[in-house]
Amino acid sequence: MMRYRLRASSLLCLALAACSKPSGNEGQALQYAPPAPSEKLSTFDVTATDAASAAAVQGPQIAYSYQLSYLLGDAQLAGIQSKQVAMCTGLGPAKCQVAKTSISNAARGASASGETRLLVDARIAIQFQRKLDAVVTAAGGDVSDRSTTAEDITKQVIDTDARVRAKQVLADRLTKLIAESNGTVADLVAAEQAYATTQEELDAARSLQASLRQRVAMSDIAIGYTTRESNSMWAPVRRSFGAAGDSFGGSIGALVTFVVIALPWIVMLSLLIWVLRRIGWRWPFRRRARGMARDESPS
């Protein structure tokens, strides 16, 4: 009788798992609302009280991303990038994280470029961008491009929250079923396998839930840097001399490469000719020329 009861309970849990597919009208909103300017945020003062208040807010869950492009003068790229990265690290990992930095040194006469990617607390993202702009303008640079992208992930958040709750209920029932089981070994093994599968799906759903929370809580700020070319009247002359120097250096390099490659063969051929001459070998055309000279000489 107990075995049938265990099997019936297992079928009930599996049915619950099949019906745990999330609907689009369930769920709980995340703990962050879309960024809104405030007096506290302008000083990057986000306290635990503010986060607790945001947790009660129900509404659309928006993942914001920003793209900034700066046009800088010569030799300014590395310094400005390091200042902006230092601003981010100064806020701490809870408010700002550096995801990527790179600098591409251009060839002579061309413009250099760089890239920085930051993850910034969504509640201070707009104010933080103003501080990034201030660093560039103070150094004489300009903002060449700016764009904002907002992605509504509310449905994904609701679906994921519902999936986590359903899988958690199923895992709890399977745990209770295994603890109170008096059935056969086969039934116990089947229940434990069902629990392992459910726990794996629960962990995956929790991971997705955390990723969605991260996307809403932290805005992605992608920064691009480009150095402007000099507008001086002598700039074309400098570029021409630079190109001429590069061409001359390339020619010298090619000549050195040819000599290095050909020198061993020249030495080997010279040694071979010397050996042949020592044993009396002569060039065929020289032998023919000598024979013709003897024929033409008066007898």
Structural summary, described in words:
This protein is α+β, with helices and mostly antiparallel strands and 299 residues long. It folds into two domains: 1-229, no CATH class; 235-291, no CATH class. The chain is 57% helix and 17% strand. It is built from eight helices and five strands. Strands 2-3-5-1-4 form a five-stranded mixed beta sheet. A hairpin with an 8-residue loop joins β2 (96-104) and β3 (113-121). α1 packs antiparallel against α5 (154-179). The longest helix has 44 residues, at 235-278. The protein is flat and about 110 Å long.
Q: Give, in spatial order, the strands making up the sheet with the most strands.
A: 2-3-5-1-4
Distance between the termini: 137 Å
Our estimate of the beta-strand percent is 15-25%
Count the strands?
A: 5
Q: What structural class should be given to the helix and strand makeup?
A: alpha+beta
Q: pLDDT average, as an integer? A: 77
Tally of structural domains: 2
Helix content: 55-70%
Largest sheet: 5 strands, mixed
* Distinct helical segment count: 8
Note the quaternary state here.
single chain
The radius of gyration computed from the alpha-carbon positions, rounded to a whole number of angstroms, is 38 Å
SSE run: HHEHEEHEHHEHH
Shape verdict: flat
Low-confidence stretches: 1-6, 11-57
Features:
five-stranded mixed beta sheet; disordered N terminus; alpha+beta; 2 domains
